[in-house]
Amino acid sequence: MRLPEGGIAPAAADELRLAFKHFRGSGKKVVVHSQGLYPSGIVTSTYMLGASGDELWMQPGAPFQVTGLASEEMFFSASSTNGPSNPTSSSAISSRPRSILPL
Questions:
Q1: Closest C-alpha to 31, from 12, 7, 3
Q2: Burial, 53: exposed, middle or buried (Cβ in 10 Å; 0-12, 13-18, 19+)?
Q3: Are 77 and 42 in a shared domain?
Q4: What is the DSSP string of 42-53?
C-alpha cells in the first residue's frame, strides 16, 4: 500500500490497520510505501498505519518528520494552606513534559 502524502483520517487508518491484521492472518506480508512523512496534515495516524505493516519502505532521502505523542503532567505540593507565596516556585508547581514515544 502507498501511504497518502497529505495524511489519512484516524478512523480510516484504524480500519486499514485492522484489514492489514486480517490479511496477515492468511500468511501474507503487508508492504507499505511512503514518499515521505511531513509534519503537516494528519501524520500520526498515517505513521500508525505504516507501522502496522510488515515492512515500511521509503525512498533514500525522503523526509521523515513525525511529531509523535507527548504528555504533560502538573504536580501540586501542599506547602501551605494559604497558597504559595511565589506561585512559580518549583515547590509550588512542577510541570514536566514527558515523551511517550522514544525520540
A1: 3
A2: buried
A3: no
A4: BHHHHHHHHHTS
Global pTM reads 0.55
Greatest Cα-to-Cα distance within the chain, rounded to the nearest angstrom:
65
Please indicate, yes or no, whether residues 25 and 52 belong to a single structural domain of this protein. Answer: yes
Could you read off the pLDDT tens digit of each residue along the chain, which spans 103 residues? Answer: 888 877 788 888 899 999 999 998 898 999 998 888 776 667 778 888 888 889 989 888 888 776 666 677 877 776 655 555 555 555 445 555 555 555 5
30, three cell numbers: 503487508
* Alpha carbon 69 to its chain's center: 4
Which residue, 59, 70, 65, 55, is CA-closest to 7?
65
